[in-house]
Amino acid sequence: MTTQRIYTLPVDQTDWAVDGSFETVFNWEYDDLRDRLITLYSKGKQKQWDAEVRIDWSQDLDPENPMELADEYMGIYGTDLWNKMTPKERVELRHHGQAWQISQFLHGEQGALICAAKIVQTVPDIDSKFYAATQVIDEARHVEVYSRLLHSKFELAYPITKPLKEMLEQVIRDSRWDFTYLGMQVLIEGLALAAFGLIRDFSANPLASAVNAYVMQDEARHVAFGRLSLKDYYPQLTQKERDEREEFVIEASFLMRDRFQAEEVWQRLGYPDEDFQEYVENAPIMLEFRKLLFSRIVPTIKDIGLWGPKVQRAYAEMGVIDFASIDPEEASVADERFAEELDARKAELDATIAAGQT
Q1: Which of 286, 271, 313, 133 is nearest to 198 (CA)?
Q2: 295, 326 in Cβ contact below 8 A?
Q3: d(CA 159, CA 6)
Q4: φ and ψ at residue 22, rounded to 5 degrees
Q5: What mean pLDDT comes out for the span 217-242?
């Protein structure tokens, strides 16, 4: 099935090319390696996996609630509009809303694929090039997984949102290698980790939960890669250079906060824009959701040293500054452990089934 058949807009109307230029940096110091990055590189090699084998694609999604998420997680749940909907309309909204979310994951992963390849080309350190090379194949696998989920299970896909497109364009176009890390590894992937985690933890559908758990296992390493690299680099910057990056963090954080409003779904299904604005911007569940999206970003921004007064004020205004107390290392370990436990349960189930057949 081609994407053209399941897209809510014709693919040829959503083509996109980003102009830009940057230096390709070679490094002949092949033994100038940092222990923590080489350890991460080794883990990146050892943790490679095949989506055809690791994920059980014979599992189906629920036709009435694909990822089996509680309706309380829908932005308009409990509102007058929700209460007036027929059961058929609610099914349609669940299907489109969840397909829209997975579509944004898919587009973000293609952006990460391009940015990881750009890091290989532009970063000056050979150990960073090593690890970024493992991330390229990770991101290709993530594009494969989410594309398959949309094509074979949802049979519906949405184009990239304007905020995500704008963010990716800024990151891809900027020639400075650390901006690629900051925009993609820390901000976009940090936000994605939080969003993946909500599906992993609250989806009752085993396929949807597994897909996001396995992707998160990779993404935890990617965020750690960005954090370790920038933590080494940012102390070398002048105050002016640091201020510039903090301004970027603030602007990008507000932009990313508005990424998950899903107005495209409302427009597609024909609901009034004024209702959408009122419900999605003010619904308690959406306010809490937008805060949780920063649970991985805020502690990482603090850890890499972009924690000036302006950044702290911005995060206080957004109501997310308390996330600064989270230990990013512990969060990464927990993400990896969840996927490993899922593998262990799957292996135990397979062994039980095999024993019953003998």
Answers
A1: 286
A2: yes
A3: 11
A4: -160, 160
A5: 93
Domain residue extents for the chain? 3-10+34-349
Residue 17 has pLDDT above 70, yes or no: no
Rounded CA gap, 52 and 57, in Å?
A: 8
CATH fit for domain 3-10+34-349, picks 1.20.120.530, 3.40.50.300, 1.10.620.20, 3.40.50.11270: 1.10.620.20
Q: Rounded distance, CA 85 to CA 83, Å?
A: 6
What DSSP designation does 12 have?
A: G
Please tell me the predicted confidence (pLDDT) of residue 169.
92
Q: How far are the Cα atoms of 60, 77, 98 from residue 3, in angstroms, in the given order?
A: 20, 30, 17
Res. 354 pLDDT band, cuts 50 70 90? confident
Task: Give the span between the Cα atoms of 53 and 48, in whole angstroms.
Answer: 12
- Please name the residue that has the structure tokens 């062994």: 351
Burial 80-93 (b: 16+ CB within 10 A, else e): ebbeeeeeeebbbb
What is the C-alpha R_g of the chain? 21
Whether the Cβ atoms of residue 195 and residue 293 lie closer than 8 Å to each other:
yes
* Interacting residues of 76 by C-beta distance below 8 A, sequence separation 6+: 82, 279, 280, 283
CB 60 within 8 A of CB 265: no
211 within 8 A of 149, measured Cβ to Cβ:
yes
- Kindly give the residue spans of alpha helices, DSSP state H, lying in 7-86: 35-46, 51-54, 80-84
Three-state SS for 14? Answer: coil
Is the pLDDT confidence value at 301 over 70? yes
**What is the reported pTM?**
0.90
Whole-number Å distance between alpha carbons of 307 and 299 = 10
Residues contacting 115, CB < 8 A, separation 6+: 171, 172, 180, 183, 184, 185
* pLDDT single digits (tens) 243-284: 999 999 999 999 888 766 788 888 898 887 776 677 777 777
Q: 221 with 47: CB under 8 angstroms?
A: yes
